[in-house]
Task: structure prediction
Amino acid sequence: MAAAPEAKFTEETVLWVKQHTPKLMTFAITRPESYRFAAGQFSRLGFRDGEGYIWRAYSIVSAEYADTLEYFAVLIEGGPMSAKFEQMKAGDTILLDKTATGFLLPERFPDGKDLVMLCTGSGIAPFLSILEQPEIWQSFERLALVHSVSHADELIFNERLAALKDHPLIEEYYAKFQFIPVTTRETTAGALGMQRIPERLKNGSLEERLGYTFNPADTRFMICGNPAMVKDTFQALLDLGFAMHRNRVPGQIMMENGF
Result:
């Protein structure tokens, strides 16, 4: 006999909601003591909807050791989950599937010296979690995060990333890290502008900005974002001589579509 739906999820409380732009929001919910996840994985969040349920997957922003679960959502006009989020406030109830999942896990790479994380929009979420794990800083000699958005007001995590230099578990390693913001529809001070990540891989401008050369022996890539970006970035890396990482055939690229 199949388990009742209620056996597969818990009811959690929304702790806070922050609206950054009309389309971008972050929020946190309570975390059950039994809930386990690896940095880079995602949760299924849901609401009761009439006589049924509505569920969507969202990458976890929080560190593995955090007491709460934080998420980043892009609101989509006409989207049923977005409609629920638009009305959500602190104190409300949200449903949390008991099992986290996903394979965008840097520890799957058996080797490599440089980890380059490439993302668009909400695809930054898993990398925010990964960057709060001291193990990742110990495993690689250099870390880079490239976050591409359309406009500068969508770069909502710049201060959070800069604050890693004072993080008690990370501050001694922070010099290994570079954050490269990208705005594709405007020129922004401090950011690469007017070109998407795939184009910057092809023309070498991303390597130039980072100050080192990508090569299959040392460089490992993780990609997360909208499907078009993931597809085009993956193809650009294939054309440069990199290969998909598989458990039985180690490579240099892991990727996942953002939610």
In short: DSSP finds seven helices and twelve strands in the chain. The first strand starts at residue 9 and ends at 19.
